[in-house]
Amino acid sequence: MSATSGGDYAGDVSASEAWEVLARDPAATLIDVRTKAEWAYVGLPAIESLGKSLVMLEWHSFPSTGVDPEFTGKLASILEERGVRRDAPLFFICRSGSRSRSAAVAMSKEGYSKAYNVAGGFEGPLDKNGHRGTTAGWKAEGLPWVQS
Prior knowledge:
The chain is α/β, with parallel strands linked by helices and 148 residues long. It contains four helices and seven strands, in the order βαβαββαβαββ.
């Protein structure tokens, strides 16, 4: 894996690099920090074929733009319940990579040494037509996903 160093977190990786580590490392975990609305209407990464389940925890709740002040504690509890060690690879994903980078930094400060940001997120940046999901990110890289 060739992470681009983030300084205060383990770094940025592509969605495909995250998928590869999730596939080979039983301890690796994918954490989606988008909102419930995004999960319901945009879709979710599908990692069940890897024998894994997605951790879903909002960085902030729609329509609020403020960060959940209890995010790190909530996530630490979820990870502990799942038996995820503090040195296990954690991959954070959001729409385009901004919120997930912030979440990776926050969890790094809590002692999680391999907190990575999935650069490009689930949908990536806007393309020339103002649409997401075509130029970068989980969807654009052709990784499995589901929509309800």
